[in-house]
Amino acid sequence: MIDAIEKNLNRGIKLLNSITDEQYSCTSTPPYFSSIGSHMRHILDVFSCIFNGLESKKVDFSARERNPLAEQTTEAGIEYFNSIISKLHQLSENDFNLMISVTDDLGTGNVTANYTLGSALIQAHSHAIHHFATIGFIINRLGVELPDEDFGYNPTTPKKELVNS
Length: 165
What we know:
Layout: H1 2-16, H2 21-25, H3 36-52, E1 58-60, H4 74-89, E2 99-105, E3 110-116, H5 117-141, H6 160-163
Parallel strand pairs: 1-2
Antiparallel strand pairs: 2-3
């Protein structure tokens, strides 16, 4: 699990290493006018919520850090990615079965449910892929190339060439 998550997060680092701070923080793309940086920061905030709640076994996805510097400069974004990857490597496979209480605001107020740490990490990983797809749209509009052909694709999404063959 850690290898798959790290591989995906490294795609984000690869992108940040190939763009400027101006591209990273640009909010000119409709319809949401969000930046690559705001999506990257949001992705990492979700992982950070998990790690911030591990000791108490209470994860609150609505208590995100929202560090503005992490969405304005690629250097701060890369540092944030690396800190999350470092925390992932501190986990063992046995930790995945740890029961945690997870809280989030689903739009009508906070809801709490029991998860395993593994299920929370899987959710954060899928959430990252979803946001990478949105980032893919933004970077296309900015005229930037995707860092690799799998950026923003869920592994279960059929590839066009496989569907047509």
